[in-house]
Design goal:
Layout lengths: L27 E5 L2 E6 L2 H13 L4 E6 L6 H15 L3 E7 L11 H5 L3 E5 L14 E5 L3 E5 L20 E5 L2 H20 L5 H11 L7 E6 L8 H10 L3 E6 L2 E2 L2 H13 L1 E7 L5 H16 L3 E5 L7 E5 L2 E5 L3 E2 H5 L3 E7 L1 H15 L2 E4 L1 H7 L2 H14 L3 H8 L1
Parallel strand pairs: 3-4, 4-5, 10-12, 11-16, 12-13
Antiparallel strand pairs: 1-2, 2-8, 3-6, 6-7, 7-8, 9-17, 10-14, 13-18, 14-15, 15-17
Helix pairs in contact: 1-2, 4-5, 7-8, 8-12
């Protein structure tokens, strides 16, 4: 990738001007701790891998998605599920009510083919704020595809065609059994919710709180509403306490103050690098992140904004530990939404993922103290703070507030 010979002040070779020829990386596979992980940074590879996974199913498919569209890609995935059901595969699909842009009628042919379809739909009240933000498909209890990508054309197109920068991972190994066990708990909860049973929010919290992701080098960690100990974020917090290196790619960045302090401490005692969104489907998310830039820059954290296309990736590498899955580094993912993250302790995998982050950083704009001084005017900071507080209520409010 060619960089400008003489970058402008406060703007490194990874500026937007140098990113015109950006392309997603090819798939790569890493073996770690008895598992096989295939990373899919390219949108078309994600779609092909998902369709191939569904078409390979012989016994069962369990799929959970926050967002499912009735566009070209969504229709292809739905029809693959229908084909599987017709050949005798036990197919179960759950989507979040807030993210289900396709509508229940779109999935009627799947039910008619013998598949099961359910909506994660907490009723109005406190439960309404809880989202099933997970994205994963389990096939034959042996393979799973997870990550940040939902089912929509946006997540599978190339950047030049308004595709979003995201990451999915195909996983084979013992942790897939944890995915199966977790999916069974969620299916039971949704069935009880549909029956109108009481105290279902408390039950959901108990499911998350009581979840045991194991203590080995590969763990399935989960999160849910107002749960602290045992939450995926609780484990991440412990990893950050003594960390000397931190690399993150986060589409939505607005962590609680306690996490910001831990991240800043990593920058002061070692090395920290964070890639944020320069383009997003929720414009307020950029403002939310920028409100925090000053604190991080003072701690010598290296900040970047990726603006080649909309950023949707969720990736954290702490020392030799890698996290990937559905969760952002924002308050909703850390405290409210139902989320999952795979945690892998493996130095070679951490190095490979840092190389991928290098690729993103090379096409991102460096956020320097000079950049921040120019952009953090009193009016800008007021707008950033308004966006930050609106975001705590609901994604829908954030969107309305910036439309």
């Amino acid at each position: 990738m060619a960089a400008a010979a003489t970058p402008p002040p406060d703007q490194g070779a990874g500026s937007p001007d140098a990113a015109g020829d950006y392309c997603d990386l090819d798939p790569f596979t890493v073996g770690a701790a008895g598992h096989r992980f295939t990373f899919l940074p390219h949108g078309q590879d994600r779609l092909k891998a998902l369709l191939d996974l569904i078409d390979s199913a012989r016994a069962s498919i369990r799929a959970f998605y926050y967002l499912f569209d009735s566009d070209v890609s969504g229709t292809m995935v739905r029809d693959a599920l229908i084909r599987a059901a017709r050949r005798g595969v036990a197919v179960s699909l759950m989507v979040d009510a807030f993210g289900n842009d396709a509508g229940a009628g779109f999935f009627k042919p799947l039910v008619e083919a013998g598949g099961r379809f359910a909506i994660f739909s907490p009723k109005w009240g406190m439960r309404y704020l809880v989202r099933n933000h997970q994205k994963f498909t389990i096939v034959d209890e042996a393979r799973v595809m997870t990550g940040g990508a939902n089912v929509s054309d946006h997540y599978f197109a190339v950047p030049a065609e308004n595709g979003w920068c995201d990451l999915s991972v195909l996983v084979e190994g013992p942790v897939v059994g944890q995915f199966t066990r977790w999916s069974e708990l969620l299916e039971c909860w949704v069935a009880n919710e549909a029956d109108g049973r009481t105290r279902q929010l408390r039950r959901l919290r108990d499911i998350v709180k009581d979840w045991d992701g194991g203590d080995g080098p590969v763990r399935l960690l989960v999160g849910g509403p107002l749960v602290r100990k045992g939450h995926w974020a609780w484990v991440l917090r412990k990893d950050l306490v003594s960390a000397r290196r931190l690399d993150t790619v986060s589409a939505y960045f607005s962590p609680p103050r306690s996490f910001r302090r831990l991240m800043a401490r990593v920058g002061r005692r070692g090395e920290a690098r964070m890639i944020m969104a320069g383009k997003s489907d929720i414009a307020a998310s950029i403002a939310m992140a920028r409100l925090i830039y000053g604190q991080l820059l003072r701690a010598r954290v290296k900040l970047y904004e990726f603006a080649v296309c909309k950023l949707h990736m969720k990736l954290v590498v702490v020392d030799d530990v890698s996290y990937f899955g559905s969760a952002n580094l924002d308050k909703r993912s850390l405290r409210i939404n139902v989320e999952l993250m795979v945690r892998v302790e493996d130095a070679a995998l951490a190095a490979k993922l840092r190389a991928m982050i290098d690729h993103l950083a090379a096409s991102s704009e460096a956020i320097t103290p000079g950049w921040y001084a120019r952009h953090s005017t009193p009016l800008a900071r007021m707008k950033w703070r308004i966006a930050y507080w609106m975001s705590l209520a609901d994604y829908r409010v954030s969107k309305l507030g910036t439309s």
